[in-house]
Amino acid sequence: MFAIAVVVFVQHALSRTAFIDDVIRQKNAMKESYHLDFKFEGKDPHTAPGLTKAQSFSARIWRSGNKLRVDVSDRKQDNHVDERYSAARHVICVNCEREHHFISTTIDPDSSPITSLVEFKPLKSGHPDIYGLDLDWRYLGLSNTRLAVNQRLEIAKGYGELKANPTLRVDTEVRGGVRCSVSTVTNGAISRTWFADPARGNPILFETTWEKDGKAKRHATEVKWQSTAGGHMYPQIVKNVQLVDGVVHHEEQITVTHADFHTPVDPAVFTLAGLGLKDNQPVAYPGLDLSRMPRWRDGKADESLSDEAQRRAQGSGWPTDVVASSVAAAYPTESRTPLILSIVSGTLAVAALVVAFLYRRRKVGA
């Protein structure tokens, strides 16, 4: 009788944790080609003086194969009040039109006189993801972490290890009027618990508690799910909170306004023409001298608008054996640049003007 009871208990426990496999299979089956729109809001009320205590931004993400495009806009920080910082759209595109490169740019509103550099950079020069958004978005809502940590997680492996943990306890509990499947794993003083919708298996609450240096710590993530195109269940709201002795030290919320893992991503999304560039933005193709950079005009990179071409038209240029148009033809267009790169680009542009000025002075003096 005891043996039968043990077998029944084990089977019951496995049936309660089977959702782990089901959910992972569902996510693995989702296409790695998708489009997401979301709003991020974060607070760190106890951070050191001078550092950011609150920030928010809106983001649009497209991924198809090894191509990734991230548009970030409406950025706000409590310690950074800058109208341009908020109004501009910051774009990063990986492997777009040129393998092993990323393109970055800042696209200011039409009302602004600023035109930022559109720069190609090799991926080996550094990771372009300054917002921490280059992650496998299929698995959003399956971990008890802040967004910036998700890119380092191995979701399927992590769940497999938890399921195999000998301390695993499975039960049911009513939360918000719904009876949930509750799984708990303990490792010394650390307790990890996740609550799941018994009908679909999607986790709706994660909770990790432990004590360190005499202080009680708690990390929790709540997930609200929605049905998207193609019948996929995907998070609508993911809220993560981290507390020390009951006091909030970090809080963030992701609100997904659009999620499509069903419709193929239009290849034009990963081209300069699809980025919505502003007229007169200089396009810095790889290896191209600053003075020969074409400028964006009427939906294309126009080499006749480069600084050198303009000087030639005015009869003040100098001979060259490299034609900018040939470079543009070799590297079909594309673009992007964060604020920092815009500042650097502006500095380089000023330097180029200084060099041109000194050259002309020396020529006149001769």
Blueprint (SSEs and pairs):
Blueprint: H1 2-29, E1 33-43, E2 54-64, E3 67-77, H2 83-87, E4 89-94, E5 101-107, E6 118-122, H3 155-164, E7 169-175, E8 178-187, E9 190-196, E10 203-212, E11 215-227, E12 233-244, E13 247-260, E14 283-284, E15 295-297, E16 300-302, H4 307-313, H5 324-330, H6 339-365
Parallel strand pairs: 6-14
Antiparallel strand pairs: 1-2, 1-13, 2-3, 3-4, 4-5, 5-6, 7-8, 8-9, 9-10, 10-11, 11-12, 12-13, 15-16
Helix pairs in contact: 1-3
Any overview of this molecule?
The protein has 366 residues and is of the alpha+beta class. It folds into 2 domains: 2-58 and 130-260, outer membrane lipoprotein receptor (LolB), chain A, CATH 2.50.20; 84-128 and 266-365, no CATH class. It has helices at 2-29, 83-87, 155-164, 307-313, 324-330, 339-365; strands at 33-43, 54-64, 67-77, 89-94, 101-107, 118-122, 169-175, 178-187, 190-196, 203-212, 215-227, 233-244, 247-260, 283-284, 295-297, 300-302. It has a 14-stranded mixed beta sheet. A two-stranded antiparallel sheet has the order 15-16. A hairpin with a 2-residue loop joins β2 and β3 (67-77). α1 runs antiparallel to α3. It is elongated. The N and C termini lie far apart (107 Å). The model is unreliable at 1-16 and 319-366 (pLDDT under 50).
Number of distinct helices: 6
Mean pLDDT score, rounded? 80
Broad CATH class of the largest domain = Mainly Beta
CATH topology of the largest domain: outer membrane lipoprotein receptor (LolB), chain A
Oligomeric composition of the shown chains = single chain
The value of Rg in angstroms is 26 Å
Tell the overall outline.
elongated
**Helices and strands: which structural class?**
alpha+beta
Taken as a percent bin, the fraction of beta residues is 35-45%
Low-confidence parts: 1-16, 319-366
